[in-house]
């Protein structure tokens, strides 16, 4: 069997090099490409992606997986569930079977529908007119449901969609965790809304872009980002991307009139990047050298952004430096004002503007509607009303326009149904891991206050990063925290933090 | 036959998209890549290049070319030599036969030898010790000669090497043209050396990098570079590259202590870029959308850099602006001083530092030695002595070290034998085209003085650029100038220009 795995690894190595090449083209497309080059870049990317698809789904891969004893019941084959080779087979079998089960005619139909869908969505959002997007969303939704049927599932078609972003997670587990979370977030948001609002006007001043870049770069470096194998560039919609085992790039966006976007965005991307820069040498260059799920990935970015970057201790450490960079803007802002301001909670219609407390409610809203759409319990025709009702129920506010409601996110137009939950799972896993970290080092505040970030980075690397996808999200969660995912850790973290800030 | 060509165009389109993808990876490698990512980038590039090679050399391409009637005697097949389809078949047949005639074992041997050769060359140059490079050069040379035999030729194995860089050019034609050029350049350099030297000290001051960037960018834009389909970035060894039909990127290098490198380098690359941005829509996206030879490409860069950018009229137009950007550096520098300074002639050991007059002699030296090496008349063992002798003969100076002599250029270590002549051909074609342009517009000085660069760009586009590789270099030369390539135009241009500058 060893030889079969060796042959598979040679084939998936080419698959990976092609994916990295696509990532390079895509990175350039989001950062430096001249505008007239965009249409042909689409052709170049489509070719590389189809070559990668052919590599992965070649009949020989199927033969070798069968020879290794892989099946739906034992995707790790005869290598065993607990070995790295078993994990390699498990992840390859999952990716391979997903791709061969979706007929190429369906892949092409989805590509066409989402390409048209994105254009229609952009127009509809611009004109604030859901009717323009409706037929496209209906088409995308029906194809996505068809995809779920093709991939197959045990309990719920949504499981087959989740699997693309959050492997091995199930609809029922998310429902269980989100249901506990929902009531506690609503309760917390309600108690906060009864307290006097904190002031964050100091974040809205004029901040030199050049100084923001330097300040953020210094912090990113101190958090542990390895610039010998990475870069920072700028883009409209920041992201992290891996162009090679030693080539992890983060991107940011700076706004002159608002301090919050640039720095916190880059700390968030640094969290993603530290994960990608932390895989074991042993898995470098094979398909296990990747985040094990989007939820685990998001746990890393949100831990660094929110739990670390928006903590009081972090600004005890960095406020003096911030005052050096921005003396006139911050000289009269005290530590407590600063800390409270960057953690202001206030319900908003727009998810990406949401605070730590209400963010999860935005996700629960989308999860609820996606489930109903996929089940067929909700028609696209009725989406506007359903969105408003859910928003009133969860956030206590109701959008007056589609642009502030069901048209705000690009995801559905791209066919990315089953993606949203990973954002909330990130917060949940992050809090659960953080509690385990606190059990280990005890005084995390002192550690952050002293800028001892390597201690945290090394703990995360050792507990999470180095494994890449060789452990599933569930396995990692149990190994690091000793139990399955549950909402209690996030609830406790938020409760403690915001009780201090809002004083209830 | 039309259908055969259609099928070929579909196949070469994928070939081209893969080459463009490689170009994107290579551009990033020279501009933004983090250092630790370099080794894996080599793997990514090698995979894309091997996929492109497989596309081009697939048996189906051979069948279709045969079905189109292509042969060594009539590479344009039954489409005819004078049609665009014929030109397409001619260039495809040339590329295809070159690649299938070189056995893959030889391709791999050359890749290994040149990879080791480049490393050895860098070390040898650093230590100024030719002996360290000698065995590697012997290996590379023998493989390159083997390649020439595999490709085949009529008169001289060097023809088969030339063909890679300067298609359809022959050793005998270059010998004929270079022989006339040699005596005139030696004579001109000798007369200049008897005159008082011009002063260029004003170019060696401190020039803010940021201001140099802005100044050069403005000029590049005014010369006609299309930023909607292109970019400027910075790199150690500037180049121009085409990442797509509407994606042509130039690169520059600025030195704070010397004004000459940054601006003139970017004007040079702009010349290359205007060629690549000027192909007819009709050939966009197929293999004719490329420069027809390196010599023709270099004619464009050198025309803009030297004939235009180092003309007196150009600085009548731009010196006032240069004084705005660099008041303290240039306020006391008069137009004539400026013009003379940027055209200083002085023999140097290093080719890339050479002036317009002696540059050709550096190339003639290399051409002479390459011919002797390929013929076997000169042994690598005797290269140091042969170089010094040729340098004394041609340039009147003899390098005392190998680093200033036979180790100065990377080309041979890369197996690029037959490449150097294209640099001199660029000057020759450029002068011959320029004479034709002068016949059309008459007063080119006034045109340049007024900054009417679009007139020149449009004439070049109409006469040269739009054809891409649909006309060979020889065809272009005869069509534009009415005769075959000859040294007289370059000789007259240099004679007139430097008589004025040095006053003889």
From TrEMBL, chains A, B:
It comes from the Bacteria. Broad specificity carboxypetidase that releases amino acids sequentially from the C-terminus, including neutral, aromatic, polar and basic residues. Zn(2+) binds at residues 268, 272, 298. Its cofactor is Zn(2+). It holds the Pfam family Peptidase_M32. Keywords: Carboxypeptidase, Hydrolase, Metal-binding, Metalloprotease, Protease, Zinc. SUPFAM superfamilies: Metalloproteases ('zincins'), catalytic domain. One of its GO terms (molecular function) is metal ion binding. InterPro entries: Peptidase_M32_Taq (IPR001333). It comes from Marispirochaeta aestuarii. Its EC number is 3.4.17.19. One of its GO terms (biological process) is proteolysis. The active site is at 269 (proton donor/acceptor). This is Metal-dependent carboxypeptidase. Belongs to the peptidase M32 family. It catalyses: Release of a C-terminal amino acid with broad specificity, except for -Pro. Binds 1 zinc ion per subunit. Gene3D superfamilies: 1.10.1370.30.
